[in-house]
Write a structure and sequence with these properties.
This protein is an alpha/beta fold. 29% of the residues lie in helices and 23% in strands.
């Protein structure tokens, strides 16, 4: 059997650790759950741990979260499409936005339901994904500010998600200045600078990040512990919250180098491209029933440091396991740690079983009060009141 295992104890540890970092920085944070792809059991465990603010890019996943807790604060993290306006305005508390027409439509839809919808105005800081150009910020903000059913909760940015830009202090200082400019010009306090992501955590841990950056949207660091800037795992976090267990379907001693001329026939590339093995070299190879159709095999790292992925086709991955089988037999499993890309594809794959360890019911029953993490709602009561103040 092939399955993804979610280690709930590791998740709790990472949540507690990151929440401690947020508390010391004086920041709010929202748990980005999109890589779970709506896995209900894990979401129930997170709710039991005290998570009350989640960020998503799929409305179906938010619906799953709402079925667990209708009062859960929901952040829609992808720019709303035209087809998503109605559910985003009706069911989501906050959305990230950079298009004026989209915000107008959200305003009109929110008015139909007598709601105030909150937005983070996203600003382009060099990663060249979403965001308005800084030179248009004041004009853009004024037009949004005049809408009756929209409240600007703050400004924000995304760094590292497309071009891989490493966040810098200069970029955050720009955001701080932009917020000061808007507050002075319009006489209206902006609650948040929402620019913290997993990629910003190294700056936070080095005590370089200004406290004015007071909202984080964190996902990968919670689920994988990844240090996106320096590589490896962030100090204090665990990297074993997600594991792929793949069943062995063949094990044989074979040549480690192809035994004939190779070309461009293999759809996912040839093996032994690094020249590590020499012609005639032999060893044991285990085939597992997971392939490129199931996940990004390049993002899998065998837990056993003596194992090495030799290559993969659509449905099978070949693992070099050494000069002896090491106790591995057909029907046994080989375990891998997936990176972000591999995890997302595994979790969205209907052919791969997902399970938690321990079972959620057992985990919740054994959970002590001090084991709960207050990832509280971000929206403050005074922010809701200010949204109803006359526009000026």
């Amino acid at each position: 059997m092939n399955r993804v295992i979610i280690n709930l104890s590791a998740l709790r540890h990472n949540l507690q650790t990151i929440d401690g970092w947020m508390s010391r920085h004086g920041a709010h944070w929202t748990l980005v759950t999109k890589m779970l792809c709506g896995h209900e059991e894990t979401l129930r465990a997170l709710h039991a741990l005290g998570v009350r603010s989640v960020g998503e890019t799929r409305l179906d996943n938010l619906e799953t979260m709402r079925s667990i807790d209708p009062e859960m604060e929901s952040w829609y993290l992808r720019m709303p499409s035209r087809s998503a306006i109605e559910p985003v305005a009706r069911w989501c508390d906050v959305s990230l936005n950079s298009e004026m027409e989209t915000i107008r439509l959200l305003n009109d839809e929110a008015a139909k339901h007598d709601r105030i919808h909150r937005v983070i105005v996203m600003i382009e800081l060099g990663d060249l994904r979403e965001g308005i150009l800084p030179g248009t910020l004041a004009e853009f903000y004024q037009r949004v500010f005049e809408l009756s059913n929209i409240a600007v909760l703050g400004i924000g940015a995304n760094l590292g998600c497309l071009a891989g830009i490493v966040p810098s202090i200069d970029q955050f200082m720009q955001l701080i200045l932009y917020r000061e400019l808007l507050e002075l010009k319009f006489g209206h306090k902006l609650q948040l600078i929402s620019a913290g992501t997993s990629a910003v955590l190294p700056l936070l841990l080095d005590h370089q990040l200004p406290k004015t950056v007071n909202h984080f949207r964190i996902g990968e660091a919670v689920f994988l512990g990844t240090d996106l800037v320096n590589g490896g795992t962030l100090q204090g976090l665990r990297d074993d919250a997600v594991t792929l267990e793949a069943e062995v379907i063949e094990i044989k001693r074979k040549s480690l180098v192809p035994m004939a001329e190779t070309g461009n026939v293999a759809p996912f590339g040839s093996q032994n491209s690094d020249g590590e093995h020499t012609p005639g070299q032999r060893g044991y190879r285990a085939l597992v029933g997971v392939g490129q159709l199931d996940t990004d095999v390049g993002g899998l790292v065998p837990e056993n440091p003596n194992h090495q992925i030799a290559g993969a086709s659509s449905d099978i991955t070949v693992v070099n396991i050494g000069d002896s089988p090491g106790g591995i037999t057909v029907g046994a499993s080989i375990r891998f740690r997936p990176n972000y890309a591999a995890t997302v594809r595994l979790m969205s794959n209907p052919y791969i079983e997902k399970t938690t360890e321990p079972r959620v019911a057992d985990f919740v029953e054994a959970l002590e009060p001090e084991g709960r993490i207050p990832v509280d709602p971000v929206i403050e009561e005074d922010a809701a009141a200010s949204a109803e103040q006359p526009r000026g």
